[in-house]
Amino acid sequence: MYVNGDKYDGQWIDDMKYGVGTQEYANRDKYTGEWRDSKRDGKGIQSYNNGDKYDGYWIDDKRSGQGTLLYYIT
User: Fold this and answer.
1) 47 found inside a domain
2) What is the per-residue burial (b if ≥16 Cβ within 10 Å, else e) of 26-49?
3) Any idea what the CATH number is for the domain that residue 48 is in?
4) Distances in whole angstroms, Cα of residue 19 to Cα of each of 30, 37, 38, 58
C-alpha cells in the first residue's frame, strides 16, 4: 500500500510495475492488466469510480488502439 492509499498487487521488475497486475486507487478507480515501466501498457480494464469502464489497449499510460468505453448513466 502506498502512502496515498493506492494498492498494487502484481509483478515487478527492478522496482517497477511490469507484467500483469492490479492497481486499486484511493479514489476507488481500479486497473487490471498489463504494465511496463510502472505505466499501463498493453491490454487492460480500467474501472472508474463513477461506474464507467474501459476495456482495451494502453500505450505509455494512455488509452490507445482498439477498446470499448462504457459510460454509466444514472
Assistant:
1) yes
2) eeeebbbbbbbeebbbebbebbbe
3) 2.20.110.10
4) 16, 9, 9, 13
pLDDT in tens, 10-68: 999 999 999 999 999 999 999 999 999 999 999 999 999 999 999 999 999 999 999 99
Contact 16, 8 (CB under 8 A): no
In-domain check, residue 53: yes
> Cβ contacts of residue 53 below 8 Å, gap of 6+?
45, 46, 47, 69, 70, 72
How many structural domains comprise the chain?
1
Residue 21 in domain: yes
